[in-house]
Amino acid sequence: PFVIKPSLGYGRRGVLLDATSENDLARSMAAWPDPHYLLQRRIVPRWLMGLPAYFRVYHVFGSVWLSWWNCFTDRYRAVTPAEEEQFGLAPLREIVAKIAALTGMKFFSSEIALTESNELVVIDYVNDQCHLLTQTASPKMGVPDELVAAIARRLVEGAEALIRKP
């Protein structure tokens, strides 16, 4: 099995997680016409603490926030400093820093999974339309309010720095 993603899609439109043949590409194209598609091997995340080891990592003007993202239920939870250390998640920060350097982007998120073989795999490397619906607004699929607030503060600081830059 493999995954099909439209290059300019969002909200899972046209994404097929269970593709097995060329026929599935036609199915994806019918759901979301796009000039380019990404075909990826299907990644199955390792389970930690009863949850999939799947992360949404936010990069905002050099600051990085890690969150658990359950790819099966869409639920978010901030990664605690103790969890980052316990599970060796510091490389997530390094990965998004490299993506930022390669793309020149100041604000994006990446989806990264930890597999059973302890391999970190970047699933969706640049989400330039970051999901920032708060948990207050949507308890089932929202991002923790304090994380959204921190990202908003950093966006304002970054924008202010750009405005004041000579």
Order of strands, widest sheet = 8-7-6-9-10
How would you name the oligomeric state of the polypeptide chains in this document? single chain
Binned strand content: 25-35%
| Low-confidence regions | none
Class by alpha and beta content:
alpha+beta
Distance between the termini: 52 Å
Largest sheet: 5 strands, antiparallel
Q: Would you list the SSEs in sequence order as H and E?
A: EEHEEEEEEHHEEH
Mean pLDDT metric: 92
Residues in helix, %: 25-40%
Rg, please? 17 Å
User: How many beta-strand segments?
Assistant: 10
Morphology? globular
Tally of separate helices: 4
Question: Which key features would you list for this structure?
Answer:
10 strands, 3-stranded antiparallel beta sheet, 5-stranded antiparallel beta sheet, 4 helices, alpha+beta, 166 residues
Could you characterize what this model shows?
The protein is of the alpha+beta class and 166 residues long. It is 30% helix and 31% strand. The chain contains four helices and ten strands, in the order ββαββββββααββα. The strands form three sheets. It has a five-stranded antiparallel β-sheet. Strands 2-1-3 form a three-stranded antiparallel β-sheet, covered by helices on one side. The protein has a two-stranded antiparallel ribbon with strand order 4-5. It is globular. The termini are far apart.
